[in-house]
Structure formats: structure tokens, C-alpha cells
Design goal:
single chain; 252 residues; Arc Repressor Mutant, subunit A; Four Helix Bundle (Hemerythrin (Met), subunit A); 2 domains; 3-stranded antiparallel β-sheet; two-stranded parallel ribbon; 63% helix
Length: 252
């Protein structure tokens, strides 16, 4: 049985993201660098979720390129990602603006993703192959290492891999496609909850419960634990989203 033991202390400062050098580091999440587009997207998404970019703010490509020290090409792609995740609206001939998102929108998105990922966990408990189960164990261990080191960036990447392994392990391409699409929309809110060290520790404990249920082949427990995990994340995400200056979300 997997257990989570994480010292809850102040987190280390977030590591500054480095440009993608294209070095061959394999699939090691410790070394794999995000693309320039992903870096810009993550920065803008964080600023929107934390209320640093308010609803209605015009997202000027050149201004963002100057701030991020990149060309306009990755900025343009990042703005497309923001629109795809619902954080921005694209207006023809006027560019992109930060979208107004209500507390109810966020609540309903997490409610939906909790049900979808719960179904994925149930099917994964029944259908995961031996190698897939080994990969899930390894992913959990990577999450455990990141949490122990208070490495928020590594935990974010490992957390995404952990959840992807589960909805891929459900072996239902239709469920996988639907879950992946909605997961992309809630991801910026999920990643920012990890600035809180106690939430990171709790997330790891919740992961251990999900993994133990899946490895035991207990479909009902796997679904139940995954749903509880996502609803717990919903509460944490709402708190983070409402903590920024003049928060972008009207959290009541």
C-alpha cells in the first residue's frame, strides 16, 4: 500500500522557467523544459487566475512578447490556448481579451471534471494493464518526491502525468477525449492551488488513496476517491482564484 508522508513547511520559491533548449533529456520530468508557447501560456494563465490580469484586459501580442522576452509567434499560440481553455475571448480585428469567469462557472467545471475523472478511475481499476499500473506507481513516486522537495513546478508536471495515466488507463477513447478537453480548461486553476504547501500535502494523500484503490482493482473505491480528490481541488482552486488583488473570479 502506498502512503504519503510529506513535511508541511513553507514552499521554495518557484523556479524561473527557462527557454526550451531542445536538449535531449528523454522523458524525465525533472529535466524536460516546456516550449516557449507553454511558458507564455502558463505565465498568462497564472496572471489571470490570480487576478493580476482582470476581465476585459486587452492582451496585446507585442506587449506580452516584450514582457516575456520572446517573439510574437509563441505569444500568438499561447493566446490561442487561452481562448481554447476559456480564459480569454478572441474578437476579430480587436485581438484577445481576458474573459469574465464567475464562481459558478468554476464550480460547474470542477463538478463536471470530478464526474468524468471518477469514471476514468473506475474503468482504470478494471482495465489497466500491468505496465500501466507500474507507470502509475512510478508517477505517484515522482509526485511524492516533488512534494517532499516542495518543488511546485515538478509537482504540477507530475500531477498532470498522474491524471493522464488514469484516464488513458480507462481504455475508452471517447471518455478520454472528453475528459482531456475539459481538463485543459480547469488546469490553470488546478496548478495554482499548489502554492499552498498544505494543499500539496493533502493532494499527495488523496493520490495515494486513488492509486491504492486502482491497484487493488476496487473500481467503486477508485471512483469515490477520485471524485473526493477533485472536489477537494475545487475548494482549493476557488480559494486561490479569489485571493488575488481584485480577483478575476467573483468568488463569493
Amino acid at each position: 500500500m502506498l502512503t504519503a508522508t510529506v513535511p508541511v513547511t513553507a514552499p521554495r520559491p518557484r523556479r524561473r522557467r527557462q527557454p526550451d533548449t531542445g536538449s535531449a533529456d528523454g522523458g524525465n520530468p525533472d529535466r524536460q523544459s516546456p516550449s516557449l508557447c507553454d511558458q507564455v501560456f502558463s505565465r498568462l494563465a497564472d496572471e489571470i487566475v490570480l487576478g493580476k490580469l482582470l476581465p476585459g484586459t486587452h492582451l496585446d501580442e507585442q506587449d506580452i512578447a516584450n514582457r516575456c522576452g520572446v517573439s510574437r509567434t509563441p505569444v500568438r499560440e499561447a493566446l490561442k490556448q487561452l481562448a481554447a481553455t476559456g480564459l480569454a475571448n478572441y474578437r476579430p480585428h480587436r485581438g484577445s481579451v481576458v474573459r469574465s469567469l464567475t464562481a459558478l462557472d468554476l464550480d460547474l467545471m470542477f463538478e463536471a471534471i470530478a464526474e468524468l475523472e471518477s469514471s476514468c478511475a473506475r474503468y482504470a481499476a478494471l482495465r489497466m494493464t500491468g505496465p500501466e499500473r507500474d507507470a502509475l506507481r512510478a508517477s505517484y513516486c515522482q509526485c511524492q518526491k516533488a512534494a517532499h522537495d516542495h518543488d511546485m513546478e515538478l509537482y504540477d508536471r507530475s500531477n498532470r502525468e498522474f491524471h493522464a495515466l488514469i484516464f488513458n488507463g480507462a481504455h475508452n477513447p471517447f471518455l478520454q477525449e472528453t475528459t482531456g478537453a475539459l481538463r485543459g480548461r480547469v488546469m490553470p486553476f488546478r496548478r495554482n492551488q499548489f502554492v499552498n504547501p498544505s494543499r500539496l500535502a493533502l493532494s499527495l494523500i488523496e493520490h495515494s488513496r486513488v492509486v491504492n484503490a486502482i491497484l487493488a482493482g476496487d473500481a467503486e473505491a477508485a471512483g469515490r476517491e477520485m471524485r473526493a480528490h477533485l472536489l477537494s481541488a475545487r475548494t482549493a482552486a476557488a480559494h486561490v482564484a479569489g485571493s488575488g488583488p481584485a480577483a478575476a473570479l467573483a468568488i463569493s
